[in-house]
Design goal:
Strand content: 15-25%
CATH topology: TIM Barrel
Low-confidence stretches: none
Number of domains: 1
Mean pLDDT: 97
CATH superfamily: Aldolase class I
CATH architecture: Alpha-Beta Barrel
Number of strands: 13
Bound molecules: flavin mononucleotide
Structural class: alpha/beta
Number of helices: 12
Distance between the termini: 37 Å
CATH class: Alpha Beta
Strand order of the largest sheet: 3-4-7-8-9-10-12-13
Length: 363
Amino acid sequence: MIKIYQKLIRPVFFKIDPERVHNMILFYGKLLGKFYLTKNILRFMFNYQNDKLKQKIHGIEFSNPIGLAAGFDKDAQLMNILPSIGFGYEEIGTITAKSCTGNPKPRLWRMPKYKSIVVNYGLKNLGCKAIAKRLKGRQFDFPLGINIAKTNSKETVDREAGIKDYVDGFSMMEPFADYITINISCPNAYGGQPFSDSESLNGLLHKIDEIKISKPIFLKLSPDLPIEEVDKIIAVCDRHNIQGFVISNLVKNRSKTYIPAKEFSKIGEGGLSGKVVYDFSNELISHVYKKTKGRYIIIGCGGIFTAEDAYEKIKRGASLLQLITGLIYEGPGVIKEINKGIVELLEKDGFTNISEAVGSEYS
Ligand SMILES: Cc1cc2nc3c(=O)[nH]c(=O)nc-3n(C[C@H](O)[C@H](O)[C@H](O)COP(=O)(O)O)c2cc1C
């Protein structure tokens, strides 16, 4: 299935503007998700189930560890189709309290030589009100994570205004989520990533604590953060209601990557996804897992294209995984391939369930 996508479909997609292809996939994905027949055909082609992949995490049942990362289904349109193509869960968003049209176009570029996407969407989304309306009263065949950030505008640059905006978004979306991710690491928003600063984060999490929800809350980290800053963030989280980390977001600092500067000559601003994130994300997963002795759940994200990529993150401490760029480069068949491959790797190492392999590199 992956070969058909790579040989026939990807070459066509890659001739078209990336944002247009993204919108086309959202349109057809939503359409296909409306009918039992199409959902069942896709389920027959792509779905893979194995008890070794099942986990219950903070009361949420995951049939497999592979989730669609935030940013692909920003406005919650694909919840009906993604379980059929094999995803174990998805994270919608990033959603912000107020709607946002995002940064000026073009804002998406492919770098096929590096299996990367350069992203400068700037938190484009319909806003909490519209998306809450879309989700109200609905149930899905897999867990739904909701990724929240502060609205990308001048008005939220002030710290107190930023906190209020986060809290508004959080309160509006929380009833519809199985878990919430607080995104403090968007590389393309107005005013940078002020809540990666531990003091500001402390203020934000203090307000989030007051909402008193029983659902798990994750924090999405930037792979660009110096380790000392990560440690400060962990220390803040220890004092608040945070259950885990999504590691990681896009790489903003291009100079620390192996991609030569000249390769960016025709590419605009934005964070990098895919292969280039892989090592940064892995190192951060290892650091957080060891530092916190496994007491936080880690969602490993960044550069997963194969079962081996996924398994490496599991062994370093990730209980769940997410991807986008792997889907764009390898097609929907990649989910089944990764899940099947993880089962083979678990069996080879003598594990009866994925949870036994989490952090096994350090046990
Ligand atoms: C097109 C695109 C849009 C994205 N938008 C968001 C977003 O809105 N919020 C977010 O937290 N991460 C966003 N990301 C980052 C991904 O969630 C993920 O952290 C990153 O791409 C690394 O995973 P990957 O290598 O599997 O793509 C986006 C990534 C891509 C490729």
